[in-house]
Amino acid sequence: MSPEQKKFIKKIKINKIKIWLCQILIIILFLGMWEFFVNKGIISSFIYSSPSRIIKTVIELINNHNFFIHIFVTLKEVIIAFILGITLGFIIALILYEFKFLAKVMDPFLTMLNSLPKVALGPLIIIICGANSKSVIVMALLINLIVSIITIYNGFLCTDEYRLKLFKTMKASKIQTLTMLVIPSSYQTIIASFKLCVAQTLIGVIMGEFLVSKQGLGYLIVYGKQVFNLNYIMTGIVILALISYILYKLIVLLENKLLKHLRD
Amino acid sequence: MNKLLEIKNLTKNYHTIEGECEAIKDFNLEVKNGEIISLVGPSGCGKSTLLSIISGLDKEYTGIINKDSKIKMAYMLQSDALLPWLTIYENALLGLKIKHNMTKENIEYVDYLLDFYNLKDFKNNYPKSLSGGMKQRVALIRTLALKPDILLLDEPFSALDQQSRLIISDDVYKILKKENKTAILVTHNIEEAIIFSDKVVVLSKRPAKIKKIIPIDIANKDSIYERRKDPNFHKYFDNIWKDLDNNES
């Protein structure tokens, strides 16, 4: 390795460490200032809680209220709704792609459903599905499904026309064109739709839990509001932030694995 | 030389909401075994449509196309259309895979072609690591792997830079001659049409009609560089240019 190359690699590594350090610094500063302002009474500890109070609340919740059940319930709902959302989204997008006539017929309805604030359907869902986890999952599914369909379908439509022509000239069957060209071409869009879908699913699940639930992080937040214990609310929010970050990272891992050869 | 393909009174109309438009009118052509024919004409005159009809991709036309049902045709397009998620080797084998024709013999032929075109060392690379010219060479191998009787070349060199263009077109020319392949080349490059072909078909602007068929009589069949040096080259060029030029006015 030439000295220039070594220098170059070193520069990239140092840059990476710098970014990482800055991120840690932001977290420490944020938490430190929060704690400091609350301790000094500059902001109200009752409304804004504080990092130390959140840790105490977590310990208290673990000891007295089965905290992990809440996390587990929310996670379970998120995962079920996410998997259903991307699977159904993928299948429906494929059907729309294969049957262009159907896609044209469905277009205004999809647009309508996409713009409709799904939370308005909440009461209806509760009446149909009952006041349970099922309602929460349906709620989340309604929110993430339309977005998944539309993004994946648009990904399919972006398949390179020369490659499509090539497959036609080779007299490829419809199944071959789909499995060997259209779907692999859309990997990037499909992964992007996963990222969108995770965010949408979390919105849906928390919204669902706000409306109807006996367990889960959404329930914890609503409960905190009812008993006016804002520590619960803050703890719920912090755990949710962690969950969404971890889920997002998992998808990025998958992306790196699937799209290794496409990146420069 | 026996006839491979005969086109009689071919007419094609396009239908759009704005109305009907004639794309090709009364087109007649005979293609003999081992012949290379170029179609030149103003852009948008329906040259590519002609290839689509000949290949059987486009079935909406009137007229007669006589060909042996056993004749195999393969396309080479303007874009290499390689699949970025497949390796060079997998890309070269794509046509065989689609046609469920991955016999030992065919695979060996692809190996031989990759070796012949100095692509063996790149077999397991992905297309992004290859230059435009190399990619088009892989596209050529993918086409040849199908062992077509007629090659349909739809402006296959027009997206390449000048240098790659000369190298790749020489490759294609040599392989066509070596294997005595029949080919129909669509191009808007007059030079390319002359140095490649036994016959240049000059088309009028829309609707495409045959303006003139110019037989090219250049004895040298070794390489396009040698053919370009032929004393008659400029005469042919002027002839074709004049015919094309007249169309525009």
Q: Estimate the strand proportion of chain A.
A: under 5%
Radius of gyration from the alpha-carbon trace of chain B, in angstroms = 18 Å
Distance between the termini of chain A: 21 Å
Query: How helix-rich are the residues of chain A, as a percent range?
Result: over 70%
Output the helix-strand order of chain B: EEEHEEHHHHEHEHEEHH
Question: Describe it for me?
Answer:
The complex is a heterodimer of chains A (264) and B (249). Chain A is an all-alpha fold. Chain A folds into two domains: 1-43; 48-263, Orthogonal Bundle (MetI-like fold), CATH 1.10.3720.10. Chain A has helices spanning 3-39, 45-48, 51-64, 67-98, 100-115, 122-129, 133-157, 161-169, 174-185, 187-211, 217-226, 230-258. The relative contact order of chain A is 0.11. With 249 residues, chain B is of the alpha/beta class. In chain B, β8 and β9 (210-215) form a beta hairpin. Chain B is globular and about 50 Å long.
Briefly summarize what is shown.
The complex is a heterodimer of chains A (264) and B (249). Chain A has 264 residues and is mostly helical. Chain A has helices at 3-39, 45-48, 51-64, 67-98, 100-115, 122-129, 133-157, 161-169, 174-185, 187-211, 217-226, 230-258.
Properties at a glance:
heterodimer; A: 264 residues; mainly alpha; MetI-like fold; 12 helices; 84% helix; B: 249 residues; alpha/beta; six-stranded mixed beta sheet; three-stranded antiparallel beta sheet; 9 helices; 36% helix
Could you give the topology of this structure?
The complex is a heterodimer of chains A (264) and B (249).
Chain A: H1 3-39, H2 45-48, H3 51-64, H4 67-98, H5 100-115, H6 122-129, H7 133-157, H8 161-169, H9 174-185, H10 187-211, H11 217-226, H12 230-258
Helix pairs in contact in A: 3-12, 4-5, 4-7, 4-10, 4-11, 6-7, 7-10, 10-11, 10-12, 11-12
Chain B: E1 3-16, E2 19-32, E3 36-40, H1 47-55, E4 62-67, E5 73-76, H2 88-92, H3 94-98, H4 104-116, H5 132-144, E6 150-154, H6 162-178, E7 182-187, H7 190-196, E8 199-203, E9 210-215, H8 224-228, H9 233-248
Parallel strand pairs in B: 3-7, 3-8, 5-6, 6-7
Antiparallel strand pairs in B: 1-2, 1-4, 8-9
Helix pairs in contact in B: 5-6, 7-9
